[in-house]
Amino acid sequence: MLPGKTGRCGVRGNREGRPWLPRYGYISTLGLDPIEKKPLYHFRPGSTILSLGFVGCNMHCPFCQNWSISQDTVADAGRFIPADGVVATAMQVRDWQVAYTYSEPLVHVEYLLDCMRAVHREEMANVLVTNGCVEAEAALEVLALTDAVNVDLKCFSEKTYAEVLGGSLGRVKGFIAAAYGLGVHVEVTTLVVPGLNDSESELAAAADFLAALSEEAGPRKARPQGALESIPWHLSAYHPDYRWEAPPTDPAMLRAAAERARKTLRYVYTGNTEPDDGFNDTPCPHCGAVLVRRRGYRVDTGGMTREGYAWRCRRCGGEAPFRG
Ligand code: SF4
Description:
By secondary structure, the protein is of the alpha/beta class. The protein has one domain: Aldolase class I (TIM Barrel). It contains eight helices and 17 strands. It has helices at 67-70, 83-92, 109-121, 136-143, 158-165, 169-181, 200-217, 251-261, and strands at residues 13-15, 18-20, 26-27, 29-34, 48-53, 79-80, 97-101, 125-130, 148-152, 185-192, 233-237, 268-271, 282-283, 290-295, 298-300, 304-307, 310-313. It has an eight-stranded mixed sheet with strand order 4-5-7-8-9-10-11-12. Strands 13-14-15 form a three-stranded antiparallel sheet, with no helix packed on it. A hairpin with a 2-residue loop joins strand 14 and strand 15. Helix 2 crosses helix 3 (109-121) and helix 4 (136-143) runs parallel beside helix 6 (169-181). The structure holds iron/sulfur cluster (SF4).
């Protein structure tokens, strides 16, 4: 990066030959969200989470639904909140988990690490929502402090990543594999954009990749759910936004894609679509009873009992695939 310039993300620069972080600690959005909105369906179901947003992103998806904060870094960057202030805010609202979300948190890695350390000092949880497009070294540093992550797997084509989105499929796959291998709770989201990433073959390749990770890892003792482990995959409906004008995702097509993916992965959900489409509940992997019923952000965990950090099916007593 040349002196006086900022990078593509717009939030990191070079001032007189030294790294310059003009947006360090600036929060564009602060709110309390249902954790299902991240989306995370298998981590602390039914809870709320303090959610921080930034400005800037290292990718430039032409259909970005948060483009006003991800692409317009000259606009109001929000207000400065130091890492300890984030923890104090979480305590004030009695919320024991913090999400870094809305735009891309990894372009603010220095602040992110400061917040994550402060959050862990108070024994709260860190949740990262990211495009996963980051060098392996930085990924490992952040993942060591991450309890749960939702990674956008935007498509399964290196060409689309490079030519349309400004990212790298290989890097994102590496990030997902690293997170999963480290025992971080991982869920994955794909925004299904007509004509861009919605072919049966591309979606099948993505499902195979996620399934292979679970199989390779096998039942890991470090994981509370051991053999029940299967990465949850959220297939989300796109609507026209920013610079992309293709018609919205057909809900019937989305349901069909989720149905097909369920032959490969145990937990596949639809998002941004009708809450009653039958693809948002979680069944027990042992007896099929509904463990969690979701209608929009109304979440009923009545199908389970809880013992400490472990969840069990109320009907058969089997271990339920949830963490936290
Ligand atoms: S990676 Fe996410 S935040 Fe960044 S441009 Fe793409 S959709 Fe927007």
